[in-house]
Amino acid sequence: MRKREPCAKDHPPDVIHCQNFYTAKYATTLDAPRKVLYKENFETLLLRRWAERANPLVKPLIRLERKRTLDFELKSCLWFNEVATISSRDETNLKEAAEGRPEISRHLNHHLQTILPSIRLKDYDPSKVDNLDSPFPDDGRKKLVFTGSFNYLANVEGAVWLFDEVYPLLPSDEYSLWFVGQHPDSQVHALHHPPMAYVTGAVPSVQPYLRHADASLVPLRIGGGIRLKILESMALGCPLVSTSVGCEGLHGESDPARWKIADEAEDFVRAIQETCAQEPDREALRSWVIERFSPERFVGEMESLYCGPSGTIS
Known about the structure:
It is a single chain. The protein is α/β, with parallel strands linked by helices. It has helices spanning about 5-10, 45-55, 60-75, 90-95, 100-110, 125-130, 155-165, 185-190, 205-210, 230-235, 265-275, 280-290, 295-305; strands at about 15-20, 35-40, 80-85, 110-115, 140-145, 175-180, 195-200, 215-220, 240, 260. The strands form two sheets. A six-stranded parallel β-sheet has the order 7-6-5-8-9-10, with helices on both faces. The chain has a four-stranded parallel β-sheet with strand order 1-2-3-4. The model has no long low-confidence stretch (mean pLDDT about 90).
C-alpha cells in the first residue's frame, strides 16, 4: 500500500477500480475523480450459509464474523461513486441488507447496478482443445469434474459433500470424480482414492478436463456471486449439473437454465445419471455463453461505469 500512494501521487489515476471488498480500503487513501467497486460475491451471504451448516460449536464465531463483515461491506460502498454486483441476486441481497441504514440505502439506490461477468472466450474455444489428448485414463468410467481452488471454503465444503453424500449413491465402477484445481487443503487431499476419485492439484490447463469430461459438477451449498466455472464448462460444450446455490444468478423465469439443478444427494445423483445418458448439444451450450457473457459486452458496461454521467473518463 505504501508503494501505491506515491505512485498515485506522481501519476494521478482517472479511475480507481477495486475488485471485491477485500481491496475496498484502498479507496480511502487514494484519490481519483471516479472510484468503482466491483463485487464478485456478497461475502456476508457466504458466512450466513456457512453458519447454517457449520458445527454448532463454531456457529457463534461465524455469526460474529458475519456481523463484522456486513458492517464493513455496507460501509465500504460509501467510498465509491459506483458499485457493481456480479448478479442481480447479489444486488437485491445487498440492497435488502442496507435497509435500516438510510445513508447507505440511498447511496445504493442511486449508485448500484449489476454487471454480469465475462470469460475470455478464445481461451475456451473447443477447436483449440479438441486436438489435445484426454487427461483421463481409458477405464470405461464416466468422468465427473469439479474445478476450482480447493482452499476456498465453498469449494471444500462442496467437494466433501460430493464425495461423502453423492458419490456413494452412484455405481462406483461406472463413475469417477475428478477434483481439478490448485491448493487442495487437507480435507480435499483426503478424497483422493483412484480409480474412484482423483485430486489433481494445480494443472497446466483445465480446458482438456472440461472438454473431455462427461459432466461438470458444481456441488456448492454455500457461497454467492456467479460461478465462472459454469461459463467455462458450457463454453467448451461440457454438460453441467449444479446445486441451486452453485448456479445462482445465472438463470430465471425468462431465461431458464440449460443444465440440471438439484440440491439433495439423491436428486443430484439422478441429475448426473440423466445428464451422462444424453448426447449433449455442445454448440447450444457454447452459444448460450457467447450470447450473454461476451468480453465485448462486459468491457462496454465497465467503461460506462468508469465514465459516469459525463460519458468520458476525466
